[in-house]
C-alpha cells in the first residue's frame, strides 16, 4: 500500500567505485515536508528504508548507489516490497538535473548534495523520471534441504528419509498455496521436482507474477529451506512513472425509467454513451465512478430534475443546465458527431456536450497558462468549482508543495500601420461593427432583465407556497422519522438479545457436559474423548479452536469417510493417543495413521454427550494393545515384502549378468 513517502538520495562524499565507503545526503519527502540527513552511509539508509517503506527512492544516477549491475541487484533485493528505484534524469538519454529543476520551477545549487537530494524527491513526486527495473515479472521458488546429509552411518537411511520427507511436506504446502493463488488471480505456475529416498531432494516452482504478489515467503528450519527470488533481466529496463489518480469527467444524465448516461473527459473525449432500463441509483453511481470523478453533472432540461440532483450530491459535483429548453433539432445536431441509439442516449449526450462547450474556452485558457508539470485536469476542476485560473494554479501547486510561476495572459501583438489612411478606415469599420454589436447586446440585456423580473416574481410566489407546506408538514415528518429510528433501534437490540440468550444456552449445555465427563474422569470410570463431526480439515480446525487438540488426546470421528492422508496428517502432527471410528475409513488415511503410529480403533464403546464423550480406560488400553499387535504384524509383513523385492531384483540382475 502506498504511503506517500519519497526518498531523494545524492552522493555527498566518496564514490561507489572507490575504496572509500561513500556517504550520502538524504531528503525524505513525507506529508509535504522534507527532512534532511547528511553524511549517511548505505547500511543506515537501508534501515531507514525498511522502517518507512517509501514509494520511491529517487536519484539522479543509479550508479551512485552501486558500482555495477550485480551490486545494484544486491541493493534492490534488500529493499522493502513495493519500493521502486527511480532515476529522475531519465533512462538511456538523460537530462541534467539542473535543467529539470529549472523546467519545474525549482531552485537548485548543483554543488549542494542536500539540495540535489531534495530536488530528486520533489521531481519524483511530480511523476518525473523512470523506474529502474532489473527483474522480470517472474518469481522462482525453491524448496530444498537445509543441511548436507554427510557420509552418515547406520542411521543414514532413516535420517535421509526424514529430511526428504520434510522437503516433500513443505513442497506440498507451497504447491497448495500456489494453486489457490492461481485460482484467485489467474497467474500460472510450473513445477520441477527431484525425487529422493523417502521424499523429495528439491522442488522448484516458476510463477508468472512479481515477487511482491506471490504469497510464499522465504523460510528455513532444521531440515528444509525455502528461497524466493525474482528472475533477473538481461539488461536494465527503464519504465516511465506516472502519478496515479482518478480522472475528472463531465457526466450527462437523462433520468427516467430508462436512464441515459454520457461521460466525457475534460478534454472532450467520449468515454461512455449508454442507456439502461430499470437501473437503480446505486448502480448509476457505481457505473459513473468506474470512469472517474465527475466535476460536472449536466442535464438538458431546466430546472435540474430531482434524480439528477441526487446523483450530483453523491459526487459533490457542480450542476449544469442549459437555462431553458433545447429543441429536438438542436439535440440531434449536437449529438450527431458521436452517434446514439435512442432518445435517452441523445439527451444525455446533448447535456454532456453542451456543458463541455460552455467551459471549452475557459479550458483552453487554462491549458495555455498552466505550468506543464502541474495536473491540468485538477486545475480545471478547481475553476469549475468557482476559483479563478490563478487561484486554481496556486491551489494545485500548494498541493504539490512546490512554488510555481503563473504564465501571464499573452498580450496581443501591436501592428505597425504601413498606411495611416487604411488604418483609420479599418478602425472606423471595426468601430461601426462594435456599435452594432453593442446595440444588439443592449436589446438582449433588456429582454433578459424582463425575463429575470418574471422569474423573480415566480420564485417569490413559489417560495411562499413552499413555506406554507413546510409549516404544516415539518413537525409530522420529524415525529415519524424519530419513531422510525426508535423502532429500528428496538428491533436491533431484540436481535442482539436473542443471539446472546442462544449463546448462553449453548455455553450452559457445554458446561453441563464437561461436568459429567469430569466426574467420570475423577472416579476413574471414563477418559475424555474429543468428538470431531466429520473427517475434514474444517471440522478438525473447528474442534481445535473450540476445545483444543493436544498430545495424548483421544479423538472420536463421527464420519471418517471423507478424509485422506492430508487430513490425517493434522491429527498425526498433533500426536493424539488414538482415533476411534464407528465406520470404515479410506485406505489412504488408514495407511497414513499406521505410518504415523497412531492407533485407529473401530467399534469401541463410548459414552457420547453432545460434542464430548468418554471411554472406559481399560477398554481403550486393551484396544490399543490389540492394535499394536496388528501394527507389528503389518510392519513385519511390509519388511518381508521389501526383502523379497530386493531378493527378486538381485536374482534378476544375476540372471542378466550370467546371460
Q: How would you describe this structure in keywords?
A:
ten-stranded mixed beta sheet, Nucleotidyltransferase, domain 5, 6 domains, 16 helices, DUF460, 659 residues, single chain, alpha/beta, DUF460 domain-containing protein, six-stranded mixed beta sheet, 21 strands
Write a brief caption for the model:
48% of the residues lie in helices and 21% in strands. With 659 residues, the chain is of the alpha/beta class. Residues 401-418 have low confidence and may be disordered.
Structural summary, described in words:
It is extended and about 125 Å long. Helix 14 runs parallel beside helix 15. Strands 1, 2, 3, 4, 5, 6, 7, 8, 9 and 10 form a ten-stranded mixed sheet that branches. It has 659 residues and is an alpha/beta fold. The chain has six domains: 123 residues, Nucleotidyltransferase, domain 5 (2-Layer Sandwich); 97 residues; 122 residues, 2-Layer Sandwich (Nucleotidyltransferase, domain 5); 44 residues; 36 residues; 116 residues, Cytidine Deaminase, domain 2, CATH 3.40.140. The protein has 16 helices and 21 strands. The longest helix has 104 residues. About 3% of the residues have low confidence.
Set down the secondary structure blueprint.
Layout: E1 6-13, E2 23-30, E3 33-40, H1 42-52, E4 56-59, H2 69-77, E5 84-87, H3 97-103, H4 113-125, E6 130-145, H5 156-185, E7 189-196, E8 199-207, E9 219-220, E10 224-240, E11 248-254, E12 258-265, E13 270-277, H6 281-290, E14 293-298, H7 306-315, E15 318-320, H8 328-335, H9 343-369, H10 376-384, H11 389-399, H12 420-523, E16 527-532, H13 537-546, E17 554-557, H14 565-573, E18 578-581, H15 587-595, E19 600-602, E20 606-609, E21 612-615, H16 617-658
Parallel strand pairs: 1-4, 4-5, 11-14, 14-15, 16-17, 17-18, 18-19
Antiparallel strand pairs: 1-2, 2-3, 5-6, 6-8, 6-10, 7-8, 9-10, 11-12, 12-13, 16-21, 20-21
Region (Disordered): 497-519
Pfam family, one: DUF460
Organism: Methanolobus mangrovi
